[in-house]
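User: I'm preparing a small set of examples for a lab meeting where we compare how different chains pack in three dimensions. I only have the primary sequence for this one, and I'd like the structure in token form so I can line it up with the others. Please keep the answer compact; I'll paste it straight into my notes.
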Amino acid sequence: MLAQWFGAGALSVPLLLWAGSIPGAYLATGDRIWPKAGVVAAALLLVLFLYANRTAAASRRHGIEQRTARNAMIESSLGDIDARFTAASSRGGGRELDLATLRHLQHSFDMALQPPSDWSWFTRIDQFQTSALRYQVYEIMYALGTYQGIYTPNAHAYVSEAFRRIIARSLTPDVLGFWKWESLLGRFSADFDPVLHDNIMVTGFLLQGLMLYTANTGDERYCRKNSVRFQVTSDRTYAYDLHSIRDSVLHQWQASPFCLFACEPNWIYTPCNFQGLTGSRLYDRYFGSSGTDVLMPVFEESLCRNFSETNGSILPIRSELTGFTIPGLCGALGDLTVVMFARGTINHLSRRFWAIFLGEKVVFDRETGQLSLTGLVGADKMDAGNYTPSDYAIYPHLAQAAGEYGDKDLRAAALKKCYDGFGQITTPTGATCLDPAKASTATNLSVLRAELMQGGDWRDLITKGPPPTALSGPILSHAPYPGVLIAKAYSNDSVDLDMVLYPSGDSGTFSLTVSRLQPGKTYSFPTETTVADEMGDATFSVLVNGRTHVHLVLTDAEDTE
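Assistant: Understood. Below is the structure token output for the 561-residue chain.
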């Protein structure tokens, strides 16, 4: 419990412990004193200082040696990494999601569409550290955003509804209530505004989720003033919008002496700042601004100067007040997560850490598919979503990175490790997920994102997004869920709509509505026709029985002229 409060930035706790020890020490003091106590205490402090000094010097020497070895390894590895990525990244317009992954994704829809007060299937331990609900709902946003941006840019329907529902849940006291206590105990403030100061663990993560939704759909509802209402407690609500959230994040980067700014009071976490940077990059791409580019030289300089170890690894945490860090907190996991955190923003950093992790930690026989990791310590062997020891919790991150860098064999081997280690269950709706008795919700969602991504997907989603033909084409605006699962929804030319559907349960005939059609025009699918009304909408029924391909096209080529 004390470790949780320490990491949550509750500065009042150590102060209270220190103050509380004074009367205890006074009461424990007897009538007699030890005259040499002062000399002994000074000697002990000197020994402790010399030990720390020599240990730090040895660590620096080892770090420099490791850095030299890493630089040589990186130089020799990047060619192979780039060649493998090129081989895996070729793909045509519009990809189809396989049914097994679609069933896994279905579980995220089930969770997102639950009533706001229903947190079943979520891991609930505490709201201060990595098991907190906020990280789970943000991961659902990222999974939905990845799926919609890559496979179904022309499906809004329940996909966008689920996205909006999970955004709304992220703004409730169940998720945000922790900030009341961190403000009181860490900032000594009764102002619980979660955007104005610190708290990039909310604003940075949410900025990324809001921007994935906005950029994928073109729906700018969260740009409206006071449209994003943070309800920290039952009687404290703070109204912002997408623009003001981004402005606050950017301003705090610019104002912070470290550039990176704090999550919890006092503690600057680099992963949270990476997430915010990705959201900021998405914002600039969509709105045509340049705040991230202006910031980037200072951000990278501080990352190198203030948040890098001697061997080149990125420190996960540093005290804003004292500069103190926690050495050896993450080890290999810290290096591995940088691969994806930096992929859409600081790509050279991402490539560097992918080369480092492959060279130092991965033992993979491509002939047999046998995979193992070496040198794992501390948090490398823990499921951060439920704080339980786990030999498998690092593999979802490896699968994501391998998929992003186009290494299909390594991705498949890492995913196999996940399923062998955690097991899988089928829920009452027919969805699948990792066994919740063995894996946290966060780990389950990490595996899902690994299954969704292939070579370059995450970088392209952040820096490019869906193609203009898809963004301006017809959209599936209504499809029943439960009822229909969407494996693909894509417009090839801004006129057609190419879909692949599956039943979520029993096969049946389902009513679909497609919008943004040309009013009054006739469309065919596959052997039937429908006419768009004056608003450009068309509603029709489709028998969905197993894999069902529905390609809606204008009936006459002359209609496109």
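A couple of notes for your slides: The domain at 97-465 is CATH 1.50.10.20 (Glycosyltransferase). The CA atoms of residues 180 and 192 lie 5 Å apart.

User: Perfect, thanks.
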